[in-house]
Amino acid sequence: RPEQSFSCDVFRDECQRQGIVGSEEVYLQVVFHCKHFTVIPKDIDAQSIFEYHFPQLAAEACESALLLDDKQKMIYKSESTLKQAAQEMLPHHNLLPDAYLLVNHCLRNSKDKPLMNIHWKDDCLQIFVAHNSQLVFANAFQVKCDEEVQYFVASVKQEFACSPAFHANLIGNQKLESLVGEFFKKTETFDIAENIHSLLSYQKQSL
Length: 207
Known about the structure:
It is a single chain. The chain is of the alpha/beta class. It has helices at 8-18, 46-53, 80-89, 98-108, 146-160, 176-180, 196-200; strands at 28-32, 37-41, 62-66, 72-77, 93-97, 115-121, 124-131, 134-142, 167-172, 186-190. The strands form 3 sheets. Strands 8-7-6-9-10 form a 5-stranded mixed β-sheet, sandwiched between helices. Strands 2-4-3 form a 3-stranded antiparallel β-sheet, with helices on one face. A two-stranded parallel ribbon has the order 1-5. A hairpin with a 2-residue loop joins strand 7 (124-131) and strand 8. Helix 1 runs parallel beside helix 3. The model has no long low-confidence stretch (mean pLDDT 89).
């Protein structure tokens, strides 16, 4: 179910309990949290750019998915453990990072207004900015305290604010409203699980 979060072991146990292991009739869509990603033109080699941006992950494989603008792609760390579990359990599956869905949501909903999607989960702060359906900024920051969250959001808004009518979707940690709400003309609380079906409709294809 879209509102559930679980480990790979729990997923395996649930597939076995329901007797759907290897089923050709069940399609699995998995959305996972992603700390390491970047956006590049779609024709550039993904692995070399990934290793350049994340040298600490040079030994890891990366994957890529085309954005809604058809001009760029997101490259991100391949979740090998999760991928193996999905392959073992169900032949028909698709794995996507939350960052990919949120950046496409930003592109789709920024036609009439500049929009910032801010997602704070654990020590990772993802920020996406789009205006006129064009991606302006996409990055993730490691944060250790509330002040760092405020600093990164304020810095990105100051640098990329293209209109005083800047709207923001606040996703994840409920403290975001009190920490950064005053920076924007309008904010809305956005829940990934509650909007998972519309988010999944924004996807293009893996490359």
